[in-house]
């Protein structure tokens, strides 16, 4: 019964997204306040029914109703309750329902937080969001209905993929989707501005918090995915340049570019059409990511049972969204001229370089990700592009980007002389060079120029990020949230670079065989396997070993890596034993039995690996702080919106 | 800078950035493209001997051996027409087993044994790497395993 109700609610939600789209767009076009009010109601209705539908799916999971095909495929009576809830988005159909719910929630948020915007703008934005919701609801109803019945009902379910039975992974999809879908809001704003034919710095001020919040969720989502891959896929890497990871990383890069270009659009009325293009691109890449993951054109952990019909639908949807938006752009972009000028050395120039480099990085990743698909589609060789390509290519735009960041943060609008900051930036650079060479050499030994270059860049950025807040605080000047947010996010980037550089330069990894009682030396630690025993979990059996780690005779840690076999799916799963410490992880994973009680083990030493996710978390924190800036909440009249050319140095 | 100059600068910077990116990418491709070969291709001598490539197929029953007490493993890969011998040192993925489709990355040794640097097996027991499925289909053998259950 609940399944039918859920299905029915989903149909109603689809039906309500149509008036949201129609009355939103038409009401704004013909200036009918009643229609606009109707569109707002439709948003609320659409959200309520989507939520209800989602709740129904969660309910049938909780009730172990194996007469629902999707539940039978992705749950099991032995599955712990928490994972039964998370299983709702454990596979294709349910995760799309989650997508729709997130989309509806963003629309609702636009209604709730648009008090300072003209009604027509809000209405157009809601209209565009309604069209996107309608597309996704139709996608679910036509190709991926999670409420289909299975007759006769299965006696028990096939269980949730054991890889997904993990706390980080239960929140990874919602975070990632919130980010992906969040970029539909700047997209809708861009379309609305083009329809209206007007784009001023007020528009940029309305869009900025939305873009920043979407970016923040995407940052968290990607970081969680990376963290999960690190400990759950079992082999201790944190980024694999897998097509699916790239699919989420490309919108992130473009989103980052968008945030920065919006700053110039708000403060100086510059880069208007460029900002529009980035808004369109960010969401298009989110859709492209969905297409890549869901259509089965690429295979990875994430690619659920693929179905060409689904791929075709998403591809058409992508074509319609992007085609319509770009067509509108080609028609309207000439309207958005900016007349402000700026000197070759100015904050504008730095933001421009930031954008060029980020777009170049995205292009490099896009080429590497899609090239094998094109080769395959044209019946040419079967190829794949390996991580070495991405690792080498990604640094080419990223190194200059990071080195430009420190002066860029302190460049004034219009014309930058660096009079007040020249000295401190120089000192910081010298300190960064000294530390960047001394710290790695003293702590780990010389490893090459690139390690030092990476650390120097990170230290310089970290120092430069703190200059502005500290000097403002000491002089008793006001410290707006946007400045704190910017500094925190850039500081987070520096923390991330420290982690990524150190772990890639100094990680140590070995495979070996150990019997209980034997021990091995690795990276200055002694690993002793003390015992092997069988243990049982709620829905799995496991072989667990105990490994005692000592250094110079003193015990450092005891870890318990496991090799699990889940009862239903019979997949073997490696559960690594990790001793986490702020400046290093010790990582022990069990391979397979080698006979006579011996097991193959992989031992890893990962210095500073935690800084990678810590850095991402700090970046996200910076995003949320910046989005809370008071000026976004202020009600502004149209006249006030002229960019103050003197421009307080906010970004 | 006048708006026109600025626009020119913007456009040329973007063209330069994207153009540079493409040029870099194309050269890096040359070194990092991994080609996929089926065991039949390898047996026919189509695979390169001087660079890394990937070979995929099923691991035939009874072909897997491990040198006692060591991490050195030997197995074969087949597309049901030809077999390739593979050796690998290290921890094998969880889902590696006989009768399973796997992909190995490495290079051809002088003795005709493929020395794998990495072995991939997928996290779904019904899963078969698409390259493997396709090269098997070519051999008109054994149907590819179907997707997940249930027969409705």
Automatic annotation (TrEMBL), chain A:
GO-annotated molecular function: lyase activity
Topology term for the membrane: Multi-pass membrane protein
Cytochrome c-type biogenesis protein CcmF C-terminal domain sequence ranges: 315-630
Xref: InterPro entries: CcmF_C (IPR032523), Cyt_c_assembly (IPR002541), Cyt_c_biogenesis (IPR003567), Cyt_c_biogenesis_CcmF (IPR003568)
Origin: domain of life: Bacteria
Pfam families: CcmF_C (PF16327), Cytochrom_C_asm (PF01578)
Keywords: Cell inner membrane, Cell membrane, Cytochrome c-type biogenesis, Lyase, Membrane, Transmembrane, Transmembrane helix
Record domain Cytochrome c assembly protein: where: 89-295
Subcellular location(s) per record: Cell inner membrane
Transmembrane domains' residue ranges: 6-30, 42-61, 96-113, 125-142, 175-195, 207-229, 249-265, 274-292, 312-331, 352-374, 394-412, 424-442, 448-467, 479-503, 611-628
Family that this chain belongs to: Belongs to the CcmF/CycK/Ccl1/NrfE/CcsA family.
Function summary: Required for the biogenesis of c-type cytochromes. Possible subunit of a heme lyase.
Name the record gives this protein: Heme lyase CcmF/NrfE family subunit
Organism of this sequence: Steroidobacter gossypii
From TrEMBL, chain B:
Pfam family, one: CcmE
Keyword Lipoprotein: no
Keyword Membrane: yes
Function: Heme chaperone required for the biogenesis of c-type cytochromes. Transiently binds heme delivered by CcmC and transfers the heme to apo-cytochromes in a process facilitated by CcmF and CcmH.
Protein name: Cytochrome c-type biogenesis protein CcmE
Localization in the cell: Cell membrane; Membrane
Span list, region Disordered: 126-152
Extracellular topological intervals: 29-152
Cytoplasmic topological segments: 1-7
Keywords from the named record: Cell membrane, Cytochrome c-type biogenesis, Heme, Iron, Membrane, Metal-binding, Signal-anchor, Transmembrane, Transmembrane helix
Entry membrane topology: Single-pass type II membrane protein
Family as reported in the entry's similarity comment: Belongs to the CcmE/CycJ family.
